[in-house]
Design a protein that fits this description.
The protein is built from six helices and no strands. It is mostly helical and about 240 residues long. It holds the Pfam family DUF1110.
Length: about 240
């Protein structure tokens, strides 16, 4: 396939595939932890409750590692794709991400320092078509460029880049949500050692239930991240 021969393209695919694999694996771990936390914890069986929480904790730890690595892989894939999109030709050397207009943010607002279309590589001209228009400065209500403005030859790359960025956000959200789950699970674990506390079983069950709810949310976020990454791969490598 011709696209696979371009510098940087193979690395984009490798990192995106790895990111999706890590997200899918993390989802499996989160489902396993959720199964542990679906069971009631009681002070009368504090040893069993602690074992239940600790087993879930191991899976949560491994899931957070996977989500962190997945987010890093998505960021790397997005950076490489931004570089690839800034090359004038498919075989041209890649530019540093810092030198690519709009590589860090999806916003493509016009800038006074934006180069003219004549001096802009073909793969970037769509980004500057709005700012180079003689009506851009005079009419602030004129529509800003969007994905629909991208030439057909590069629209899939722009969409894939946005999807990878969104996938990273969801992976980070899943990571943070697992952290919230761990805090509630730790509270439940500690309450199991307070048998003299009035109504302690209610408190334990409340914290366990909250931890379980966070896990469901985290698993869904990881699923969205994996789906966005897969969609980006389909756009970049339709074959």
């Amino acid at each position: 396939m011709a696209a696979a021969a371009a510098p940087g393209t193979a690395q984009v695919r490798e990192r995106a595939v790895e990111a999706k694999r890590l997200c899918d694996h993390a989802r499996g771990l989160l489902r396993g932890a959720a199964a542990h936390l679906a069971l009631l914890m009681r002070v009368a069986d504090a040893r069993g409750g602690r074992a239940q929480a600790e087993n879930a904790g191991v899976e949560l730890f491994n899931a957070t590692r996977g989500l962190a690595y997945a987010a890093e892989a998505m960021a790397a894939a997005a950076g490489l794709l931004a570089q690839r999109g800034a090359a004038a030709e498919p075989t041209a050397p890649l530019s540093p991400v810092a030198e690519i207009p709009g590589a860090d943010e999806p916003d493509r607002s016009p800038s006074p320092s934006t180069p003219t279309a004549a001096s802009t590589p073909p793969r970037l001209r769509w980004r500057h078509s709005y700012s180079s228009s003689p009506h851009a400065a005079a009419d602030p209500t004129a529509p800003r460029p969007s994905v629909a403005d991208i030439p057909d030859a590069h629209r899939s790359e722009r969409s894939a880049l946005d999807l990878l960025r969104e996938a990273k956000v969801y992976a980070e959200g899943a990571y943070d949500t697992v952290g919230c789950c761990c805090n509630r699970l730790l509270t439940a674990h500690e309450l199991l050692d307070r048998p003299s506390l009035p109504g302690v079983d209610c408190f334990v069950d409340y914290e366990r239930g909250a931890a379980h709810s966070y896990l469901i949310v985290a698993e869904n976020l990881a699923g969205v991240s994996a789906a966005y990454t897969y969609t980006a791969l389909c756009l970049l490598f339709p074959d």
